[in-house]
Amino acid sequence: MGFYRGPNIVTDGLVFAVDAGSTRSYPGSGTSTTSLVGTSVGTLTNGVGFNSANGGSFTFDGSDDYISVAYNTELNTPLGATFDVWIYPTSSGEFLSRGTSDSGTTPDNPRFYIGSSGNLYFDWSVPGTDTYVDSSSGAVTLNAWNNIIGVATPGQQLRVYVNTIEPSYGTVSNTLPTPLANTPNPLIIGGVTWIPRYIAGKIATVKLYNKSLSATERLQNFNAQKSRFGL
Fold it and tell me: How far, in Å, CA of 191 to CA of 198, rounded?
């Protein structure tokens, strides 16, 4: 994983990692991005672009751009999941999701959404309920780089962190099942296709772990890349 600057990122439990700044993941042009671990491949859809600043990032217009990563069993996370995203949002909107319908109807439907006031939402569908975190207003800074980490642990509530800080919650609802459900749906970077709703801005890296990262591990990942994004 030498494409990351600074200390090495956590590799234990890492099942998916795309980085627009790594030519092994994305060569700077074309419509495919390859995970640096495993066999997953993402398809850039509707004109997702590339920006070379900050080591490289994918650009999204907020209208219909997204990257679709086809389902495979490597993406299953029954014992815990952590999503780690570096994002530069210029608007509110959905920026990461998995599923084929709105939350509360099918299992394994994680999604992240930035509200108009910068508040951050992290949802995880549980059949018959909706398990979610609604963070406080101002958790995410528009027109700036943010490291957003969402942690799902079986039998516990969702947690979310922005630049290693856990925002105060507006709402915490329900607990996750044990084990976490997994359904054969694609991972969508840049939005939600079934609503549809998309983010405008840049996304440089997306990592998925099949475990819940500890505070030490989350800090290690943040420190590994913060200089790349001017933090």
Answer: 4
